Amino acid sequence: MKVDYIIVGQGLAGVNFCYLLLQHSKSFVVFDDNSQQSSTVAGGLYNPVVLKRFTPVWKSDEQLELVNHIYNDLASYLETTLDYKLPVKRLFNSVEEQNNWFVAADKYGLQKYLSPKICNNNNMAVPAPYGLGEVLHTGRIDTEHLLATFKKKLASTYINESFNYDDLIIKEDAVIYKDIQAKNIVFCEGFGLKKNPYFNHLPLNGTKGELLTIHAPDLKIDFVLKSSAFLIPLGNDYYTVGATYNWTDKTNQPSAEGKKELLEKLKTFIKCDFKVVNQKAGIRPTVKDRRPLVGQHPKYDNLYVLNGLGTRGVMIAPYVAKQLYNFIENAIKLEEDINITRFSS
């Protein structure tokens, strides 16, 4: 079998890159063994502001522009709904926090994202005597549904097995893997990159994140609530609570410690009964400089990597997938911020 691309891994990076290949009539096969869970357990939130530091997300304007049409295009292609427009509201715990919000909302780069008005709250389940601040241009992508429906739609291109690096033959103008010959191979493996002999020299750290799903019939909020944790409405009185950050545990197994941490945080800002109905965990592919890992192998010209999306994969994936596609197919230079050559010295 001859194809244009072999894609290894099918999280948010892989799906976005494959969608570009589809749009440009490029043929491909995908190898995915479901070993990496960070995309399927993601909260799916897109939010252009780092609320902890009141700074814009890296490339927020460019990323949001792509988010707003790529996921809508994908939803049309898959004949489903993926994008749920939801405001994000930051709960204030003091007058000082209110004042910090007003200062931030006046800053260049943040004015279009932070509403200068304080939202009053009459919901007894969410005590907010100092009100809430609203982040604009936010929402949630149903990442689990996206990955499942994309895989179902393109079932003929998927090979559900682990990729064996020892079986890869690299030639000057092609790569050969078993009975498949391709012009290029792109590794979108998330934390699985640590086992990849061609790219495991890159400084991918990996940060475990855990989420809870709760059922809270008396909560009744239709926005994302940010306090010591995020609370994301899913519909029918179900909510996602997240997320934890663990830099030592590199397993996909939910932990009692993660659950305890999230419940303790949740109980500080909601006052109603709820029941935990699910807990999930995954390893985010994080990088020390908080920038993606995108680029070409230093020795083999037809090997590429698309990785390191960190905690904001929903926003970053369309942007870096487009960058890599244009680099490979149109010889457009990668931005230095994301190019893996930044670690070559």
From TrEMBL:
Superkingdom of origin organism: Bacteria
Cofactor(s) named in the record: FAD
Residue span, FAD dependent oxidoreductase domain: 4-324
GO MF terms held by the record: oxidoreductase activity
Keyword S-adenosyl-L-methionine: no
InterPro entries, A to Z: FAD-dep_OxRdtase, FAD/NAD-bd_sf
Family: Belongs to the DadA oxidoreductase family.
Name of the featured protein: FAD-dependent oxidoreductase
